[in-house]
Amino acid sequence: MTTAWPGFDNERFADAATVMKALGDPVRLRLLSEVAAHPGGEACVCDISGPFDLSQSTISHHLKVLREAGLVTSERRSTWVYYRINASVLQQLSGFLEDLSAVQGESRSCEDWQ
C-alpha cells in the first residue's frame, strides 16, 4: 500500500510506530529524560534508578526497549552499561510528526490511495 503524500511510505510509518511504542510508557519517557539530563549526557542504571520505585533489573529492561527502538545507545564498561541519547532518532520522529502535521486537512480522493 502506498500513500498519496510524498515522503510517507510503509517503512517510515513502521519506524515511527516503533519509536512511539517505546515512548508510550511513562517510565521509559522518564528514563529518557533522566539520561538526557545526566551530567555528560550518559548514565548507567546505578546513576538513574534513584527517582524510580523499581528494581534495577526492571529499569534495565525499560532501557533495553529504548535501545532496541534506537532511542538510546549503550556501551559496556566493566560491569556497568552506560546509556546515551540517540538524538538522530528523536530528530527523525520530530520530522515525521512535522510532516504529518503539514498534511493535516489536505483533501484526498479514494483514487489517490490506489
From TrEMBL:
Any Pfam family matching the protein: HTH_5
Q: SUPFAM superfamilies under this entry?
A: Winged helix' DNA-binding domain
The alphabetical list of record keywords is:
DNA-binding, Transcription, Transcription regulation
Domain of life assignment = Bacteria
Fetch the InterPro entries from UniProt: ArsR-like_HTH (IPR011991), ArsR_HTH (IPR018334), HTH_ArsR_DNA-bd_dom (IPR001845), HTH_MetalResp_TranReg (IPR051081), WH-like_DNA-bd_sf (IPR036388), WH_DNA-bd_sf (IPR036390)
All copies of the HTH arsR-type domain together span 8-104
Q: What would you give as a GO molecular function for this chain, any one? A: DNA-binding transcription factor activity
Name of the protein this chain belongs to: Arsenic resistance operon repressor ArsR
Q: Which organism is it from?
A: Gordonia namibiensis NBRC 108229
